[in-house]
Amino acid sequence: MIRIIAGAVLLIVAWLLPLEGIWRFLAFLVPYLIVGYDTLLHAFKGIIHGEVFDEAFLMSIASIGALCIGEYPEAVAVMLFNQIGELFEDTAVDRSRDAIRDLMDIRPDHANVERDGKIETVLPEEVLAGEVLVVRPGERIPLDGEVLEGNSTLDTSSLTGESRPRSVGTGDQVISGCVNLTDVFRMRVSGEYAQSTVARILDLVEDAGERKARTESMITRFARWYTPIVCGLAVLLCVIPPLLFAQPFSIWLKRALIFLVISCPCALVLSVPLTFYAGIGCASKNGILIKGSSLLESLCSCDTVVFDKTGTLTQGSFSVTKVQASDLAEQELLEIAAHAEAHSTHPIALAIRNAYGKAIDLIRITSVHEEAGYGIEAVVDGRQIAVGNARLMERFTGSIPAETGVACVYVAIDGQYAGCLHIEDAVKDGSAEAIRGLRDLGVRRTVMLTGDKEETARAVADRVGVNEMHASLLPQDKVEHVEHLLEEKQGTLVFVGDGVNDAPVLARADVGVAMGALGSDAAVEAADVVLMDDDPRKLALAIRIAGHTRKIAWQNIIFALGVKILIMLLGALGIAGMWAAVFADVGVSVIAVLNATRAMRIND
């Protein structure tokens, strides 16, 4: 800023002084060097390293040429307004990074860990899984874990974009990066810092700029060819008319220099990547992590959205509503099922253990085998126990049990069917609204895939309003269905899931979207987009942000090329002078950059 002011003042002084000859040249050379030395140095280094054709080279050649033909004020003006343009650009970049910077602030500074009856303040990286932390009001939760003692209110806005505080108590899961607002609580750490939510988020943000959008890549390739071509045209413009038509060389040299200033592609090279970066920042501010601008652009052409059911369209928090037993007491059936599910982390297993409500005697359990898509086989009190779906019952008992409920977990003992547990999973409040929002955005096809039975899946599908539904699927069946849908799609296929079983499907889809707050580590790692608050409505917002971002990028492309081509023609014809050239370069760049920052804002 100081250089710009100093250069502008000295330019005006040199303009007003009645100087001639070498003194006039020196008077303008001083502000020229003050405002343009870094551009000249950059161009010189580019020539040394073989990177000749860039914006600094064009500006340097054009301004030095203007000095050579006596256009001193114009030469200084080219460098001065170039610096003003860069100032606007730097300001715009800083504004676009604000959301990313805010997100980076979620990194916890310390952890209060209980060791040997004392509280030690250590770095989060030094805390081990299973240790107990004390989180005081105003502190950021350093690692993921479970509340052991106390009740409090958390500010999750930096992670989820949700301004409403969340209440937590004993037994609730808490994630790193949230701020404790009200009361002290104790928590047990579930994993080390490297596997925590905040660490995964920071890794995703740091990697987000590495995957360029097709539009960005196109502009990069365009600039690589465009700049040498316009340099060649400028040389021809300077040489051919004097040689072929005996025109004055000085006139066509000036026109060639004007042509070079106009042709500088910085408006495109900077504004398009900045637009996508701003779009990623806007998504981050709204609790949506997008792992690259290429994915942001892919969301624009979303045609088919495939949902997992449990934990995605439904809450994933199951409860046992009824116990049906054949030849033994209902409580005994529930006790056997709870012990068989003692080591499982599946939400249904947790619901069965919660319904039992008593301590699990692990000594009674001597063998456990869990198979995804089927259920649990275990040895409890020396008896072979099977707890799972109808497919597991057919394998274990040789027959499929009669229909006893819409959503059931079946239990067999020593090869004999023993009863079932009715399970319910409530639909998320925003699921139906999410489907409607996708349709309003032009998504042609919405599909739900689930391992649940037909009746349960149909009830959920009818309630949320998806176009089609496929039930009783194993994990590999989901992949096969997505493969089939990929062949039928007309645009981008998006898969939304949250569980470990969804990771292969997330990776196979064009764009994989994971529920980040409660979703599994594997799903988050495999996904391209993470919805931090598990709200399916955020998918429609992500698509809106993507469309808004791409629209702004193309506005900048069309505007910059249109103005440049027009003034390049006028410059070649001698109608547009150096001041018009400065506007065509710096003015267009500033307007394009300011327009790019609009991608940071979108109405919810």
Show the helix and strand layout.
Layout: H1 2-16, H2 21-48, H3 55-68, H4 72-96, H5 98-104, E1 111-115, E2 118-122, E3 132-135, E4 145-149, E5 152-155, H6 157-160, E6 166-168, E7 173-174, E8 179-180, E9 185-189, H7 197-207, H8 214-245, H9 249-263, H10 266-285, E10 288-290, H11 293-300, E11 302-308, E12 319-325, H12 330-340, H13 347-356, E13 365-371, E14 375-380, E15 383-388, H14 390-397, E16 408-413, E17 416-424, H15 431-440, E18 445-449, H16 454-464, E19 468-470, H17 475-488, E20 492-497, H18 503-508, E21 511-515, H19 521-526, E22 529-531, H20 537-572, H21 578-596
Parallel strand pairs: 11-18, 11-20, 18-19, 20-21, 21-22
Antiparallel strand pairs: 1-2, 3-9, 4-7, 4-9, 5-6, 5-8, 10-22, 12-17, 13-14, 14-15, 15-16, 16-17
Helix pairs in contact: 1-2, 1-4, 2-3, 2-4, 3-4, 3-9, 4-10, 4-21, 5-10, 8-9, 8-10, 9-20, 9-21, 10-20, 10-21, 11-20, 12-13, 15-20, 20-21
Strand content: 15-25%
Order of strands across the biggest sheet?
10-22-21-20-11-18-19
What is the β-strand count?
22
Query: Regarding CATH, which class of the domain at 319-424?
Result: Alpha Beta
CATH topology of the domain at 319-424: Calcium-transporting ATPase, cytoplasmic domain N
Percentage of residues in helical conformation = 40-55%
**Tally of alpha and pi helices:** 21
Averaged pLDDT: 82
Task: Return Rg in Å.
Answer: 32 Å
Describe this structure in words.
The structure is a single chain. This protein is elongated. Helix 5 (98-104) packs across helix 10 (266-285) and helix 11 (293-300) packs across helix 20 (537-572). A seven-stranded mixed beta sheet has the order 10-22-21-20-11-18-19, with helices on both faces. A six-stranded antiparallel beta sheet has the order 12-17-16-15-14-13, with helices on both faces. The protein has a four-stranded antiparallel beta sheet with strand order 3-9-4-7, with no helix packed on it. Helix content is 51%, strand content 18%. Among the domains are: 111-201, Calcium-transporting ATPase, cytoplasmic transduction domain A (Distorted Sandwich), CATH 2.70.150.10; 319-424, Calcium-transporting ATPase, cytoplasmic domain N (3-Layer(aba) Sandwich). It is α+β, with helices and mostly antiparallel strands and 604 residues long.
